[in-house]
Amino acid sequence: MHQNKSLRPLFLLLAGALACSPCPAADLLEREEVRAFIEDMIARHSFEAEELLETFRGVRLSDGVLKAIAKPAEALPWYKYREIFVKPDRVELGVRFWKENRAALERARRAYGVPEEFIVAIVGVETRYGKNAGSFKVIDSLATLAFDYPPRGDFFRSELEQYLLLTREQGFDPHALKGSYAGAMGIPQFISSSYRNFAVDFDVDGVTDIWGNADDAIGSVANYFHRHGWLKGGLVALPAQQVGDGPAVQPAPGLEPDLAAADLESLGVRPDMPLPAGEKIKLLALETESGTEYWLGFRNFYVITRYNRSPLYAMAVFQLAQLIRERQAEARE
Description:
Strand order of the largest sheet: 4-3-6-5
Helix content: 40-55%
Order of helices and strands: HHHHHHHHHEHHEHHEHEEEHH
Radius of gyration: 23 Å
Number of strands: 6
Largest sheet: 4 strands, antiparallel
Distance between the termini: 65 Å
């Protein structure tokens, strides 16, 4: 590893930190993987040793974070997951959010090709339109998952790295920002790498604020979809039916569209309407209380799963968006 001048006094500083810090921080700084992470941040990103040690002195690992990530809503069957997000109050709040932010939503649609209802539905599912953006300290969440959650430790160490870069770039106090148990932030719940890559200053006031500025949150969601390949005017999902009384059709693993219309016929599945010629589709099987419900996901459905790698999530966004669009049209009549 390349060494810079900041590394030379690191272990002396570390010894001093261990001697004077409260136990939780001292325990964290004693860990070899944490010291290696700090050294790497110094070597690759020119952080000062004193600065990072001061930051990590204030970190507290969280049992609450580990308990929350062990029980994700996406592990529920579809009919229970749907009940969380696709409900009348979230539709009504979505219509209100649309009305209050009509100009920004229209501008985002023109700029990025993403219909208003999908932008609204994302922030509706994520934070109930900014009303529940999370109460966990982001740095505590990310550190906990980076060092105490082996299944996705590499991912969260990368997000912790991105978070420290983000806070340095924006001049934020690393201990001031709050978010979800997984470190997602603001109205649209962007993780740190998404903020750095896709967040936009949509109202051009010189600050990219996804926490308190609905314009920036709206533009950032639309830009995220656009950059992940949203097809303007493209389909998102259509219902389908199994033909005959054979065993339930089992879709192939994965989320990316992988079937042609002819493949559906051979599987014994029929769409509820004709499909666009040449467009790849993904067969989805969702668990309901009375059996299996089949849907076809198109490229834009796959783009929604880039926000959360779950077909349940994307279907909840899709169905909430449709209901918001319908209710919005009724309200304008």
